[in-house]
Task: structure prediction
Amino acid sequence: MVLTGTIVNALGILAGGAAGLAAHKLWKQGIPERFSDMVLKGVGLSVLYVAFSGMLDGSKVLVIVLSLVSGAIIGEWINLDGKMTSLGNALEKRFSHGQSGAFSQGFLSATLLFCVGTMAIKGSLDSGLIEDHSTLFAKAVMDTVLALVFASSMGAGVLFSAVPVFLYQGAIALLAAAAQPFLGDAVIAEMNSVGSLLLFALALDMLGVLHLRLANFIPAMFFPILYCRFL
Result:
């Protein structure tokens, strides 16, 4: 089922958010940082495993290299990472002082965190193109932990972020499934390889080893569609 990964991801956010609200009653200031930090490091290691399992799917090294370089140039040119950061800051500033206060801030912050990123796009593409939900399952674990941490300090608004996550990732997966007949197996394999390389970089970022403006590399996942026609 194309939407399996997306459904699991949304349910994970709901479960993590509910656990976070319960944890707030135990720890008035939210989950202790030393616990949340260690759990997130463990999730980072699991993302490394998911990345390794997909990096070697592709066989055309030149396509991968050209896709990463082209995607980085396009992403840096339009400053995709900066625009996403600015959008998040602007929306947070706009809603954090509204009447709903903490609820709106929790909803908005969690939605941006769960929707914007390599795993959301790459995982949804995998679900739609080859019905491989492993990336979204890993993302579901990570989002569950983050929802728990966020909800323990920001409240019930975090739980409602499951709705836009479901709609956003579900739409990508369904569009990918519709486009799948027009894409060959080689193109899909190269797209998965490029996306897995970005997941590898994301895992290193989560572990504190390396920091990149990963959003600027997102266009790279779509360049194999172009280059596989000529190479």
